[in-house]
Design brief:
Low-confidence stretches: none
Mean pLDDT: 80
Distance between the termini: 25 Å
Number of strands: 10
Strand content: 15-25%
Oligomer: single chain
Number of helices: 14
Number of domains: 2
Structural class: alpha+beta
Order of helices and strands: HHEHEEHEHEHEEHEHEHEHHHHH
Helix content: 55-70%
Length: 389
Amino acid sequence: MGLMSVMADIWRSRSRSALTMSAVAIGIFSVTVISAAGQIGTAKINDSLDDMGVNSVLVEAQEAGVALSDSDIDALGGLSGVNGAMPLMAQVTKCELIESNVSCMVWGVNEKADEIISMKAIHGRLIDRSDLKKAENICVIDDEIALETYGRTNIVGKTVSVNFGGKYTDFTVIGVAESGLSPIQNMMNDAVPYFVYIPYTTAQNISGKSEYDKIAVLLDKSGDGETAIDRIKTCMANVKGEGSIKISELQSQKKQLDGILAAATSALSFTAGISLAVASVSVMTAMLVSVGERKREIGIKKSLGARNIRIVGEFLAESTMICIIGSVVGIAAGCAVAFVIGLAVGESFVMQTDIMLIAVAVSAVIGMISGSYPAYKAARMKPVDALKM
């Protein structure tokens, strides 16, 4: 009993075999597409969360008299699992643009704002080293202020007057940043008004203080975020004292969201797996019909000395091959659809080899289980009865 013999048996009843393969292919296709959609969805959500600064952590003093300095930035930036740290100075105040006077939060930042707090300029540019060195009176505003006051987002070159201690200081707008990306906005939700970003050196000159209000820390997204956060907490506790520092982060929300998505994908995959159970019934039905059609053939083989194990092997091999071919077709179709989904949402998708092998193996097992009863029935057939037509 060779592969060619099995394929010949399948080809002989090709219409029925094709329908049976289709049932298996649809089941495997469903599981493949749902699993791929879950993988692509997780990647897309994680990318979106990364854009929102979910991999950033805010460190701030929780007790009076505790100050954050350059040495703290160096200590945090050198921790394993941390990609960088930058100073932040913050003040809620008023700012004037043309005839509008709006509440805003002014943030003193450095040239790493795009990387560490996910600032993205949609017009103009962000703050650079030259601005810090000169402590220039320049600013980057979020696009919502621009829309509120000017009715458009591009107001590069305009002047913003910011109230510091009752005195207004003029700043030239060098850039407009996309609102909602910065983690310092996402962590503070709707309680935070409009945002204005200035060089932290300028903020120091105006406020007359050298210490920082907060430190933004960028975590390595390829590492374990929770472990890195624990290191940050330990580091600050050792330097500043237990309970003197507050850590604000979004990693826990990200982990919860990943868990919810994984659970939903598993539930949908289980539902799709039901179609495989239906496919196994189709395989068993097809093989039982095949036994009835091939009674004379079975009788001739047994009368010529074919043993029961050979008859069982032939039917098991046929049912297994039908399921394997169906699974390969289902995987190919599923991967094609997953690739299209990935292109549509801008995420790459690569089907893992081990998953494909598992799918084929599961299909083979289904084939053997589904074909076992028809094979047993064929093997138990007596030659005399089988030759009666």
